[in-house]
Amino acid sequence: MTSRTVQVTIDNRVRLMSAVLSATSWPDIEQRQHRHRAHVHARVTARRVADLAGHPAARTLQALLDAGTSLERLYTYALNLSWPDLRLAGEFAWAPAGWNDDLRDFCVQAGLVAWWAEEDALWQRAAEQMARVLPAADLRAFFEPFVGPVRQALAVMPNISFPSDTEIGVRLPGTLVCIMPPRIAWGDNEPWPFDDDPATIFRGLVAAYGRLLVRAYLREHAAELAPAARVPLPVDPAFAAQVPSWHEQFIRLFVMGAAAIFLEAAINRQEAEAYILVESKVHGATMLPGVVSVLRQYLAGYGEGRYAELSEFLPGFAQHLRAAKDMMAR
Q1: How far apart, in whole angstroms, are the C-alpha atoms of residue 312 and residue 307?
Q2: Stretch (H or E) spanning 9
Q3: CA distance 37 to 46
């Protein structure tokens, strides 16, 4: 596949999972993490389904959230349901049997299909805003030096429901899906329209697709990268405590660094520098400038033919990152 296109989609299975999510403690969890106003559709949906908080579908989802089940897993489950009958394709050992039947009943009791029809103009506006931004995002060409040709279709769903503060990446057979909320505005302000802030869209796409692509790449090259994974990455203690796995540390560092590089290419250097500053100063990603420097080293070597692929560079990644951090600390 050579198309640059990222397809914009609106999927009822995602909307269903988000509606059930709004009947759990998730909206309160978001607010405890950082106060913001979710999209009006999300807020009204939460009020609409509040009486269904005790429904088996919502109770199951709450139990899964309490057990630490990731949003990526939950939405992968949703996108492996058929629509509208919600039959499950594949096996999900972590999901209780019959949850898909409960989700179908929740959808009927909440009148969600009729509700989405009432709110269609809001969803279509979000999709149109997203579509205006995407032509500048050649993500296939960007990721190829890192993971090889991207052969999956790329899809994105603008999400004006919950979660309202984070993007989700889902791998389906032949397709990578990014589920993305609009950029939040602090306090009581409404979130930004999607096309008012292309940088947030690009950052989210790089993060969602990058996590999926790099995780798969590391799995495919596990044997040859085993020695590299035994060398601790020079990350801050707080980061190491939060993300103890070498592989997950690398994935998180990669998507942050890749986002900065992509922002410079797709928009300008000032946008990339602003992103690095916010992540470093506000979110504590003090290693980000070093990561960007090291990824640029790899891209330069790749372009000059010194590396045929990322696996040839990764054994020295920790050493390169340590050197970059030392240099920037001087």
Answers
A1: 6
A2: none
A3: 13
In terms of phi and psi (left: phi > 0; alpha: psi -120 to 50; beta: otherwise), the region of 145 is: alpha
- Segment 308-326 mean pLDDT: 93
Name the 3-class secondary structure at 19: helix
Q: Which of 156, 88, 83 is nearest to 113 (CA)?
A: 83
Q: What are the tens digits of pLDDT across the range 14-55?
A: 999 999 999 999 999 999 988 899 999 999 999 999 999 999
DSSP 8-state class, residue 150: -
Residue 279 CA to residue 105 CA, distance in Å, equals 42
* Helix 40-48 vs helix 120-133: crossing angle, to nearest 10: 150
Over residues 46-91, the pLDDT tens digits come to 999 999 999 999 999 999 999 999 999 999 999 999 999 999 998 9
Sequence length of the chain is 330
Q: For residues 174 and 192, what is the distance between their CA atoms, to the nearest angstrom?
A: 31
- For residues 161 and 227, the answer to whether their CB atoms sit within 8 Å is no
Residue 308 three-state SS: coil
Which backbone phi and psi does 235 adopt, to 5 degrees?
A: -105, 160
- The whole model's pTM is what? 0.95
